[in-house]
Amino acid sequence: MDFMDQIKKRAAKKNCLIVLPESYDERVTSAAAMIAEQGIARILLLSDDGKDMPGQERLKQPGIEILDYKNGPEFEEMVTELCELRKKKGMTREKAFALMQDPLYYGAMLVHMEKVDGMVAGACHSTGDTLRPALQIVKTAPGTKTVSAFFLMVVPNCEYGDKGVFLFADSGLVEFPTEAQLVDIAVASAKSFEQITEGEPIVAMLSYSTKGSAKNERLQPIISAAKRVKERFPNLKIDGELQVDAAVEPKVAAMKSKGSNVAGNANVLIFPDLNSGNIGYKLVQRLAKAEAYGPVTQGLKRPVNDLSRGCVAEDIVGVVAITCLQA
Q1: Assigned CATH for 3-139+302-326
Q2: CATH number for the domain running over 148-292
Q3: What is the model's pLDDT at position 1?
Q4: What do you get for the CA distance between the two ends of the chain, in Å?
């Protein structure tokens, strides 16, 4: 059984309800049908005044619910809740009514009110449009101020990491993370790795330097972030700053970072900025022919995940399965 098959099997056991608000995109309805057929999750599709969706016949099966949300009995309740939630930001009932016409906002409110277990969107919306409702309504998890994104990388025939499985972060959202944001990203990434793989996270804070081999003021946030995480979570294996080879290759680690309980064994790689994180995952994906699952959002109270606008139906199925494990 390959990695994604294992994820789907574990997701199926949770029997989650996931809302897919972009119900008039053929990729989304095709993914909904596949998810229901495979028993991965229960799917809620948001209908616009009862109009037919692409692949309507495949949607008539157990595990798929279609909600004509603008005319549903809960619409007014959602408007009232949004007014209350955002009243300090100047939200009026008129503004709330207009926002709740948007399926992304309605979906985010369903997540917030725990009427669904998570939301997956972005097939036909930008990352900003997808995550804005989540940030305004679902908000960040207790103890974190940073929402970030990671990729799960599954490298074939690889002896490194967790049998070739790695988590790369931040590879999707935070462009130039501060020290405090690096702390949040590292902590969230360790939790995400454990949630999704059931393996022990071993976290490396990456750099072009290993343990002082270079001196530059830009390295200090990486070093300080690793220290702060160690102090908060003494049982978490984390170290930095480390070069990639020292982080994943035991022989190099023995030379460059002797005595580290992370060097040579890392499976969670924290990049110093979005440039390096994005470049890193794409290099591994293309040159090592790795499977790349993401970007997966972390740091929210409840899961809302963003799709690439170039995604195919199978990608949506995978992200829904991962969302179930986050729920």
Answers
A1: 3.40.50.10950
A2: 3.40.50.10750
A3: 61
A4: 23
